Amino acid sequence: MRALFVASLIALASFVVTAQDLTLKPASVQHVTVTSGVTGVVTPGARMTLWVDVTPNAGMRVYAAGAKDFLPVALVMTPHAAATPAKPVYPASEFDANSGAPGPVPVYTRTFRITQPVTIARTAKAGDTFTLAAAVNYQACNDRLCYPATSAPVLWPVRVR
Q1: DSSP class of residue 80?
Q2: Cα(158)–Cα(99) distance, rounded to whole angstroms?
Q3: What CATH number was assigned to the domain covering residues 30-159?
């Protein structure tokens, strides 16, 4: 009887360890694809536009500004001495009534572009190169569950003309 109890305890302990291992693994899927680019000529004192295209994977939705109880998408620039960002511009969203929230929630289900106006410092010189960086913070959900909020890094290599 005691041997059966000990064997049961060992089996239960190995199940608990296996379950813990599964929950401790970091998420490897971001649920979106992010691409970026620059529009405009980069000269000292000039205003240019950085852009980010975010494409939710099939069946996924990314929450937009105004979504309550969810993290809306946000482009957050890393400060850089050579550039001064203005406020990012987000496109109009659609509304999803099947999010599990009490009412319609603003979401993106297709590719959308966030634009980020930036003014290059007047002290920048032709030939200067630097990298502007940001993070796209977002929360993605499908029809079954919502995933934890996450971030996708974005880099823009810039060369001043």
Answers
A1: B
A2: 39
A3: 2.60.40.1290
